[in-house]
Amino acid sequence: MLRLMIDRLSQTSLCGRCRAWGQSLALAVLATCVSVWAPESLYAQATKPAAAVSRFEDKTLVTKDGIPLKISYFAGKKGKDTPVVILLHGKKGSRQNFNSSLAPFLNDAGYAVVTVDLRGHGETPLVPGPAVAPGATKNNAPQLKPRDYQAMIPGDLEAVKKFLYDEHMAEKLNMSKLAILGADFSTAIATAYTELDWSKIPWDDAPTVAARTPRGQDVRALVLLSPEGSIQGMNTAQSETAVRILGLPVLIGVGSKDTADKGAAKKLAEKLNPDKRDHIYLETYEGGLRGTGLLGRKLKTEDHILAFLDKYVGKSTIEWRDRRSRLER
Q: Which residues form the AB hydrolase-1 domain (predicted)?
């Protein structure tokens, strides 16, 4: 399986919308993959006690419906060429599932990273009001209703995107090089937000659509750990179809003995890739772990994620551009 992954990462061209990134990445990607799957993984080396740990800053964003959304921000070091990853936790989780593991690992590899406490999780309350005290956690997952899951998309994720827009305009990152990772229930949030992001109509500031300034179309890749086939109140089939039509690259990870999976990961991979192209990856990891449980277990999950992100986002040649309408500059 790992040899197949290496072959795919080094030999395949990019999906239809990303093909312009060019074949010039092939040698660089191959070099990355060789180092990733060396006897001692990059993640294992990066998490040794002597390794440097990236610093992050906790921030509170406010969603359009008044929720104080807690995030941690790992700033990048490449200025306006910096790619970005949003990490979303799973059931009963929080951004702390990433802050001492995957987030600093990706940050050290050159990515700006945002970890999020979705509403009703971690330090983010379920209703408008003060945020939970730092260090404390309040998990309202059992109380979440369909409308709460739905609100995470135009509420929580849009607040994060607005934050990234501000960082982009300050030339601290390139929001057009964006990937989202979701775990169990938040895989549906990730795909639904991707659909929303790509549905945004560009500013009407140029004669042709191609020349107009985009308002969205920034999510370039998805990582889905233990994807769930259905979420209360959400049309997951619609957003999955949108991802398929867009031809976006997706890495799906699942435990080989995950009793909760019930074939959902394989079904999703087949749905996203009916033409058997090479931009959809299904990785199976030994054991019954699920979601963020697949991280930090010496399964090389982190290495696979980094190699995938490097291929489709990190080494993208998409240039930074002013995202304001030309009529407002």
A: 83-197
